[in-house]
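Deliverable D4.2, example record:
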Amino acid sequence: MPVKTRFPKLEDSPKIYELIQNSPPLDLNSRYLYMLQATHFRDTCIVAELTPENGEAPSQIAGFISGYRLPENPESLFIWQVAVSSSARGKGVAKKMMLELLQRPALKSIKQIMTTVTPSNTASLKLFESLARHLKASFTEEMGFESALFGGDAHEAEMLYKIGPFHFI
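Output generated by the structure prediction step:
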């Protein structure tokens, strides 16, 4: 099935919630947050759909990326979550979403991507390393959030990764 990317819509939020719920180790946020991401933050979020070639079955959400511009540095895009459905993994959907997100007119001034990734989330780490190579940008790591900050949740530390500077065209 072909993959098409687009801006998220409010009516996507229940499917986005379900996608994140089925994508461990991602942290599941409230349904309300996904409604906000699909509306207030739609310029910095993206949905990938699998569209059946015969047009008989409805499209299904196969991926979602949420992000936002850093208020103190609007040239930096923080990527909050990247999720790809199990049926679409290993097909380059996450990288396609990232590259298409960067092409949006509202994000033309972005020169750096930031994200946090737990050490055990090797799929996300590989995605961001690949993206840095594609953008011919540096890729650095530092401590983001130590595990103790998550209280009794037994949450791994979140390492902060920075890609950039770059000039995406």
